[in-house]
Amino acid sequence: MNNLISLCKRRGLIFQSSEIYGGINSCWDYGPLGSEMKRNLKEYWWKSMTHSRSDIEGLDSSILMHPRIWEASGHVEGFIDPLVECKKCHLRFKQEDVDSIICPNCGGELSAPRQFNLMFKTHMGPVEDSSSIVYMRPETAQGIYVNFSNVQVASRQKVPFGIAQIGKAFRNEITPGNFIFRTREFEQMEMQFFVAPGEAEKWVEYWIQERLKWYEQIGIKKDKLRIHEHGKDELAHYAVSAFDIQYEFPFGWKEVEGIHNRGDFDLTRHSQFSEKKLDYFDEATRERYIPHVVETSGGIDRCLLVILIDAYVEEDERVVLKIHPRLAPIKVGVFPLVNRDGMPEIAQKIAQDLRSSYKVFYDSGGSVGRRYRRQDEAGTPYGITVDSQTLRDNTVTIRERDTMQQIRVNINELKNQLEVIMANYMRDKGFILDKTNLFHEGVDRG
Ligand code: ATP
Does the beta carbon of 297 lie inside 6 Å of ligand 1? Predict the structure, then answer.
């Protein structure tokens, strides 16, 4: 983890927030490469969830919402962790994390547990009194439930259908840590799937398989993923059944995403608290009911951590991030072998031409070996080098990051060749070759 964290800083993936002021606990900033990678990840999730299907609609609801929402959702009452505090060093721990009354930090005596609500509160408007309290949303899901009817009517979707949303969430976590694994401000990618009563368990099974497949499609090793079913004592207040997709982090198997059967809890509660009908008339069966909800709830930051850990490899002479090309922040590095004989001009032109399709990085500083190493650390899948042979026959080398193998191609064929190499990469890894699987997304190849 320490090596990965220092690589993230060195290469501009992730910085500690407010670093020049000494940092702020559990907050992180995504640098030039990190922000690019995060966008790629969100983009791919969005495409898989919405564009590639006809039964899921997108939503972008606000972070601050009516405070009654959090009463209806059970968060005001139930989003609490019992905390114990050390009487000597005053550190606080989740009760579930300590198994005796001895402080794991200093050996002092721990207090009796106290309830602690994880929601951040703030005030709306100029007067800070109890009537102006609003909460920073601790999950994006509630914005979806309260818009269920709006979306259903506007999009003319029929149950079963889903609503997907990506956005920030805030939790005043007691034990944040492990880099971006658990933070107090983070992003979620959530999808709530509305189904007929009695159909939920079938859909839970379906979504477990779909989501597992998705993690494999972004290149995560299969044997590092597993499903954990929640026992009765682990279930959240709303859940009928719950499954975690877990990844084997260096600090153990941990949740990356939850797939939950939430029954009709959410829509029923919002209907009661708002006194608005949130039911659905099923034309096929002529029945009226409150839909049940199956959710897939993942964290963007936590998923990024999985990708980075999974991709991080220390080899004899180099450190390399073997990130799936689709997610790599920079797709192609372009290098002149030396800074003379017209090579920089040719390389600059190649870089500029490729920029219409990919995020490209031009680098002429230091030996070409050093330049390759820098791009290996940044996870750049392909490096293109202009050398003396280029001047004779208009060919360049394409170097592949993982194998370090090089092929020569004509500059006029460069774009096509990159496509072919990428398609082969996908095929070798067993990916389905559809349009969204290609790394230069958003460009119609006709
Ligand atoms: P944790 O493993 O932190 O106890 P949780 O069970 O509270 O998570 P959920 O409420 O199911 O998590 O949230 C869904 C997803 O949101 C999690 O699988 C995780 O990817 C992400 N997530 C939740 N809390 C955090 C956090 N504090 N920091 C980063 N990601 C988070």
Answer: yes
Q: Do both 346 and 302 map to the same domain?
A: no
Q: Is the CB of 16 under 6 A from ligand 1?
A: no
Cβ neighbours, 10 Å, residue 259: 28
Decide: residue 95, CB within 10 A, 0-12 exposed, 13-18 middle, 19+ buried: middle
* CATH code of the domain in which 405 resides: 3.40.50.800
Residues 162 and 263 in one domain: yes
Give me the pLDDT at residue 433, please. 47
Of 245, 280, 309, which residue constitutes the final position of a domain?
Answer: 309
**Per-residue pLDDT tens for 226-256?**
999 999 888 888 899 999 999 999 999 999 9
The pLDDT value given to residue 100: 87
Looking at the structure, tell me whether residues 292 and 396 fall in a common domain: no
The stretch 399-405 carries a mean pLDDT of 93
Using the mean position of ligand 1's atoms as its centre, give its distance from the Cα of residue 282 in Å: 34
Looking at the structure, do residues 236 and 284 belong to the same domain, yes or no? yes
Query: Within this chain, do residues 390 and 259 fall inside the same structural domain, yes or no?
Result: no
Give the pLDDT confidence score for residue 442 in this predicted structure.
Answer: 36
> How many C-beta atoms surround the C-beta of residue 53 within 10 A?
14
Q: How far is the CA of 388 from the centre of ligand 1 (A)?
A: 53
d(CA 218, CA 47): 13
pLDDT at 310: 98
56: left (phi over 0), alpha (psi -120 to 50) or beta: beta
The model's pLDDT over 333-357, given as tens digits with 9 standing for 90+, comes to 999 999 999 999 999 999 999 999 8
Domain co-membership, 176 together with 288: yes
Range 204-216 average pLDDT: 96
The answer to whether residues 300 and 351 belong to one domain is no
Domain containing 351 equals: 323-437
What is the residue with the minimal CA distance to atom 5 of ligand 1? 255
* Spatial distance between the Cα atoms of 429 and 400, rounded to a whole number of angstroms: 15
Residues 263 and 159 in one domain: yes
